[in-house]
Amino acid sequence: MNNIYFSTINILFVSLLLLNNRQIDCQESPSVVLVDLTQFDILNGGITTSGQCCDGSISSGNCSSTLSCNLYTIVCLDFVYSGLQTNWTYCPLGSKSFRVTINNTGSFNFHLISNAATFLPLQFPLALISDNSINIKIFIFYDYMNTGNLTFINQNTLLNRFIATFRIDSSYPSASSGIFQRQTLLDVSRNTTNMNQLSVGFMTYCQVTYYGQQCSVRCISNDDCTSSYVCDTITGTKVCSPGWYGVECGFRNKSYVQPICSSNALTCNNDGFCQAFNNTNQPTCCCPLGFTGLNCQYLSTCIINSTCLNGGLCNPAYDPLSRSYYYVCSCATGYTGLYCQERQQCPPTFYGPNCTIQCHAPNSCSEGHFTCNSEGGKVCSPGWSPISTCLTKNLSSYLDPECPVSTGCLNGGTCFNGTCCCPSTYTGHLCETPIDPCAINPCQHNGLCSSTSTGYTCQCSPYYTGSLCEITLNPCDYSPCRNNAQCQLLGNITFYCICPTGYTGQFCDIQINYCSSQPCVNKGVCINTITGFSCICSAIYTGPTCSIAINPCLSQPCIANNTLNCINNNNLTYTCYCRAGFTGSICEQTMNSCSLVPSLCKNSGTCVNTINGYSCQCNGLYQGSDCSIPIDPCSSNPCVASNSISCQIITNSTIYGYSCTCQQGHTDK
User: Where are the domains of the chain?
Assistant: First the structure.
């Protein structure tokens, strides 16, 4: 079993390596050199340059092939012309070291050693090299102390020294896409016929954001308001996004519009332009210098008397949408524009310093007869008053040259421009024709109009009010839903009712009949309730819908002391199994065995009924359950033994007994 370990580097050697590494870290490392060690062929018998074996013994021939040796390997990167090819402590471009335990002094493959795949190939971040060439120095020592302490690494323990010159002119975009340059190196520490050999592989790949054969081109893709490009994956050349051009892709073709921007309603003001970054569906505005805001509508800087013109003032403000501060120009009276650069010209019918006063001079019967002054105030035409309406004429009709006839207008009409301005209830050239006020349908929302002597009145439809039925009411305020239902407003007058349990209908005024589907079966009676129904079942059924037949045995119909068991026949009937001596449908009768079967007891025995059947009471001459077995009268030895010879049974139609045969001198009397 071969083992490999990373060793702890210390003392002078460590200090020199750290110094070298510090020189590299202070520089950019656009590329990474991979050094892979594969096959190591020990052909010189495992003897060091000083003639020692790995156990420290001196050998005049080959070392024992069964020795377990600890090899210490140093991989050192150096400049080609440093002149320190034999110095394993001078590694200005980086170094790595590790220990390997081998069980013999023959050949082995580094990749077949346990855990080797965790650290091979070795990686060295590399700065840019002017001649694109480096020396890779590999030193292999015996570690006699088996501690990995480099204090004991010296020329006497050197087993081999290998050197290779590697040109960095074919770097790959990544480690996974690269191919190792494989070669076999010969030991250069001595000149012998059987030189040890080491198979190695070298490769370089570029770090992220570096490109090119020597990883000398750096490119970081960008997509913002200043430039937009991606990096060519091989050369690192900036490839401009559509609509951008220039070496740094920092110039924009103003005629190009991204598709997402052309289909979006986003407006970018003040020469800003729309841009969707990183091909997203979220377009934004790129604002020119001096402007900010989601639509570039705000000033990002403001200088009094420089940014805001004509006496305008700079005022800071906050935009909650873009979460940023900006400036606005508060213009002096008579000026407008982003910079207050434009003299204000009021649109028609607007007056005042800020064009906020509206005045319309109609000179009509309905709106009045007046003109507007420069401040937007009313000026009644000659002969008309009051100033608030200018609808009343102060001249008599016979003096008014505007009257159509000398008698003037009828029914309160007023002369105007050769015709009459009639009140709302009359029309005609002279206001001679009454007007039906309902003809113009003044009542809104289908209100019913009724003419009166003074005008008209409106009878409004449900949920409307006002003189013209113009005011919409909330129908839910009138509690249209019944039975505690909840009223929900849908529109101005549209509503719906959320009915409580047990009610339905538009107004929840209909109680739901849960019995309509006849849920109770087996002649059960359905009772409707607010929340559902209940069933009153017949005596032989039960359950929510009377669908479960009741077990008749549950009511204990059989007389308990006389019955063995009650059996449910599953057809609403039952059967009582009676104890011995009982009968009847519910075991209510005592069984009379003596009367059912005559002459149960023989030989004049008396039959007596019992719980379990019957019994026979026999006379003294018979025995057995039915008195059928005669009793032997001699069995009790009735004859005096000392005076008798024998006992004989006497049987005839009238006598059943015994007779003693006595000895001489004795009698049975």
Answer: 3-211, 560-591, 596-631, 633-669
